[in-house]
Fold these 3 entries.
Entry 1:
Amino acid sequence: MIDRIIQKIKDKGGRMTIQRVTILELLAKLDHPTAEEIFQYTHDRFPSLSFTTVYNTLKSFKQLGVIQEYYMEERSRFELSEKPHPHFHCLQCGCLNDLDPGKITIIMDETLEEELAPVDVELFLHGFCQDCRRNEDKS
Amino acid sequence: MIDRIIQKIKDKGGRMTIQRVTILELLAKLDHPTAEEIFQYTHDRFPSLSFTTVYNTLKSFKQLGVIQEYYMEERSRFELSEKPHPHFHCLQCGCLNDLDPGKITIIMDETLEEELAPVDVELFLHGFCQDCRRNEDKS
DNA sequence: ATAAATGCAAATGCTTTGCATTGCC
DNA sequence: GGCAATGCAAAGCATTTGCATTTAT
């Protein structure tokens, strides 16, 4: 799967560096990481990898269409995906979780679709995640 | 309508000042303004109104449940509304437009709704607004 | 060879905070 | 009168930029 993404990046004229591969692997491993989380993890294996490179790379990946960026209340979160899909966002801890797209149907008026020609559709449910609700119960 | 909102703010223990009324009126008048846009407009009629007060007030209004804040790519946009509703967001100019909720239906699996108990649902269509498409055609 | 990617330091820009003053209820 | 709101200056923090160096293709 990562190989396919690397190929796509190269096909579009992007270059692969150790830094970029490391960031790509982290994007596959972590769950909707922030730029800082990516930096922290890379720092372990790759101390010279800079924050600037994390940002440059994420921006580049985004333009190449291999990742999504979600602008959450707290900060941006990233995801290895070509299209946005529905998410649950916790109002307390700020975590982001994928939702099964099969369990949510969005029906749009045809005239609206033609008129606006949306490039993509973003949907968030906001609430309190299980972990946060569990901790709330204890107190 | 503004009177009703003022009443709600007071009922919840908030106080009304000239600054707050001015900001409230601007929220009613402007279309999804940013904090800066609000500040610019208030500055005309009310030069002493500070940026801090704009931010304080928006934060307070949000906690009191009279406005919504949308975290867009460019910056936050605000809206006089108790609940979020569907929007169209322009990928070029960053403008935000209300969508007729009647033209978009979101159907959620019952089990999902019970499990997550979402507080609210946010939906964005991303694309290019009419103005931006028109300008694009000219070039 | 050349155009892209890296990484440092510095800058930017939005937003928040501390705190003394003001003013609503 | 008491507590919330104001507004100034300063700080905070995520993200971006300039630029010289390195490196993939």
Entry 2:
Amino acid sequence: MQSYPNSSWKYTVPKLSSFEERQADMAARLKAAGHKLTPQRLAILKVLAASEGHPSAEQVHARLQPEHPSMSLATVYKTIALLKQAGEVLELQFSDRDNRYDGHRPDPHPHLICTACGAIVDPDLPGLDNLAEELSRRTGFAVSSHRLDFYGLCPVCRAKQS
Amino acid sequence: MQSYPNSSWKYTVPKLSSFEERQADMAARLKAAGHKLTPQRLAILKVLAASEGHPSAEQVHARLQPEHPSMSLATVYKTIALLKQAGEVLELQFSDRDNRYDGHRPDPHPHLICTACGAIVDPDLPGLDNLAEELSRRTGFAVSSHRLDFYGLCPVCRAKQS
DNA sequence: CTATATGCAAATCGTTTGCACCTTA
DNA sequence: TAAGGTGCAAACGATTTGCATATAG
């Protein structure tokens, strides 16, 4: 459960594994794929497992500065690349700003994106996978994933505007 | 109407204005916004009005080489920027490849994207705007647009794989 | 004529890569 | 100790920008 300041809006995320469980899962997956578990990687996994605010690579890096002052941004990108290969992180690509990452829910799911402040949240909106199946049947495409973003002003930025 | 080679798949796009009408609309919009209608711009509008294959800026440029050998890629980007401002072109952003543009249907609508060859088509899939409205009501976001992409292998690339 | 557009080349910026030095297992 | 990881700096590539010249209205 999570809520916006200055707003009565609340939304729930489906009951999923805890952050700790997610981090452990991701670590196990990397190890299984033959990768080493360094302190840097574990720290990056921890941030991505929480994915609070759907951070960019730079935000992950910034968040770890206190604990790991010498960690380089390249290491963050390299770790994210491994996780992408393993299907353990969802990447939201943008061409006009940093990509954003969700390691807590790596399966495709809808996002609400504030066009003013860049906030990204997970709304509760079930029943989309059916759409993908239907499309596969109708079009001959072998649909394997999807992306659904809604763009608009979040309650906070809405208030600021008026 | 349009179809893939080596495939019985067909899809239809909603009945819309013809390419010529779209081009004229876009030109009128630019003029109304105080911009000049140069031969380069008109040529770019023509390609975007058709939007066959949802071209990238580079593809638009390449397609116009024969007629306008001296046209620069920067001019294509600048014209697209004007059209984006005017809401006359839909931009599909990607961070790992060129952005793609649709000037024929500038309103948000679903896309089917082949992860192998990059083909982009418009499937017929009505009833999504309701979703956006519902989300607005539920979340407090002022949802103004959306993006829905389905990723998979198109029939042609599917055949090549097996 | 004058504001605006074009074309070129340089700048931007997120991301990736090469490589010498470290670390995990 | 060997395979793989880290950090740095340079390279990349799509897009944007500055500016001198050209052109639409």
Entry 3:
Amino acid sequence: MDFFYFGNPHPSHDHLHNMPPSSPEIALSDYLLLDDFLDHHHGHSLSSQSTESSEKATFTDSTHGFTTGATSKNNTNNNIKCKNGISESKARLGPRIAFRTKSELEIMDDGYKWRKYGKKSVKSNTNLRNYYKCSSGGCSVKKRVERDREDSSYVITTYEGVHNHESPFTTYYSPISFLHSDDSTCSK
DNA sequence: CGGATTTGACCTGCGC
DNA sequence: GCGCAGGTCAAATCCG
């Protein structure tokens, strides 16, 4: 089981900077560290497992690896597709990371460009689940976005895989600079 | 017109 | 083997 302190500042900062002036307040509230955990607990337990006091997340090297590693690419290349490519989806793309965000918006700009490829209602959650793929060529990272079953004001975002490219966001915001700066000092 | 989104169909895995 | 649930595909549609 992979453990990650999911404290990558990119999602929150980028999101906040890209919010329109009229957007409702959004606060990162819960970071969920999971891999196989997700397979057994689904959305319902996710919310109950999360902690309300985890606003301060730790930014670690593993998080950096999350953005720059190449394992997902290798996995994809080595995988043998069935005729419609579904087997690719069954192979693990890499670490799976989920976090819960209090937001009225489901789409959070995390610095990457995502293409929506599916929407589904699932039994474990009365809300619809949206499926996204990274739209960067050769990058097979996926994410699922769904509203918390018990509290629809929260959005559960699950990332699966590792980006094999830099976020376009890093052109303007270096991770290093984030590590050494206050939140309040972030600006474009 | 090209890229993004929608949505029904299809596929796979799993439990019974 | 069958049915269900979750995940993905791809044609149709939308939108800038």
